Amino acid sequence: MKKINSICVMIAIFINVFSIEPKAIFKNTEPIRAGVLLYKGNDYFISLVRNKLIEIENQNKDRIQFIIYDGDGNQDLQDKQLAELIKDKVDVIFLNIVNINNADKLLEEIKKSNIPVIFFNREPLSLNGIKEYTNKAIYIGTTACESGNMQGDVVIKEWRDKGITDKNKDNTIQYFLLQGDKDNLEAQYRSECVVRRIEENDIKTSKIAEEFCNWDRACAKQATEKLFSQYGKEIELIISNNDEMAIGAILALQENGYNLGDPQKYISVIGVDGTEQARQMIENGFMTGTVIQDSDGMATALYRIGSNLAEGKPALQDTDYKFDVTGVGIRIPYEGYLIRSSLR
Q1: In the record, which residues are listed under signal peptide (predicted)?
Q2: What is the pLDDT of residues 162-205, one digit of tens each?
Q3: Strand-pair partners of 211
Q4: Each residue of 82-96: pLDDT tens digit?
């Protein structure tokens, strides 16, 4: 009798393994195919995220395959790239959108194919569309005000340590603001929060001018050259939404004999990202400080949460991530700030 039962068990196993629905059994033998749409591949932070994703793929070839497109700052081009990924029936899409005003339009196209999507880094003006794509869409970014607050902390320390020269002795910081792009929430909050942080600490500020330079070094250099010719003797601080624009500003100052090592000819400049060139400039004393973004943390979150969505699991299953108050947003903390040879 025991022998017969054993045979029955073996037959049952055989039938189960060779059933007519093998896809369910062998579902995980193929790697997840994740389409990655970058708004601009030569953006420093985005390039670091891309490189980390490639590293993750190389370490998990049986688990994930990234299909990466560079939108080159062109929404029409990114639309075509998205259409290719949808046609190719990828398992999940990571969308670093070029124009945040097009978020709902692109989301509707993705929903037609029932593909999960993670918007990242460039936050849509509203997350309502993401909420409506239940259990299929989320946003991964940062808390923009956190970077502004950290920039503010750099300025406060420099001011109190007499690192910022009060040229006209009015006990007020005269500053020039370099912003990303007009519609970018990250740029808006960084700009608002850095100034608010400074003023909350009983330090007066006065904005001389502002310029939207779309995160671009060349634009920032040109804008600073023009401003310096008009207000060179008044500028005490340049606040930049990212390091690339901060470096552009410094290059313009250096062409005018400033920020080359002479403490009497120095204008404080702060940025965000923690790029290698910014770190070197801080070490050389040409730049005041920078806030460091966590590119590895962003890429890892995309991989882990994206894998869950691709497999039909809850987005945060088996992770330590938490949703913010929106219920669909994940916020990656900044790593800290670098200021005049000390990391905080």
Answers
A1: none
A2: 999 999 999 999 999 999 988 888 889 999 999 999 999 999 99
A3: 178
A4: 999 999 999 999 999
Q: Are 305 and 116 in contact (CB under 8 A)?
A: no
Cα 47 from Cα 44, distance rounded (Å) = 5
Would residue 4 be called left, alpha or beta, if left means φ above 0 and alpha means ψ between -120 and 50 degrees? alpha
Q: Helices 217-231 and 243-255 meet at what angle, rounded to 10? A: 40
Instruction: Determine the Cα–Cα distance for residues 311 and 77; give it in Å rounded to an integer.
Output: 29
For residues 332 and 301, is the Cβ–Cβ distance under 8 A? yes
- Which numeric CATH code is attached to 22-142+295-333? 3.40.50.2300
C-alpha torsion sign, points 105, 108, 110, 115: positive
Identify whether the C-beta of residue 220 lies closer than 8 Å to the C-beta of residue 181: no
Q: Give domain 145-292's CATH architecture.
A: 3-Layer(aba) Sandwich (3.40)
CA dihedral of residues 239, 243, 247, 250 (deg, nearest 10): 20
pTM for the whole thing?
0.86
Residues 6+ apart with CB under 8 A from 287: 246, 247, 250, 259, 269, 270, 271, 278, 281
Evaluate whether 229 touches 253 at the Cβ level (below 8 Å): no
Pairing mode, if any, of strands 268-273 and 92-95? unpaired
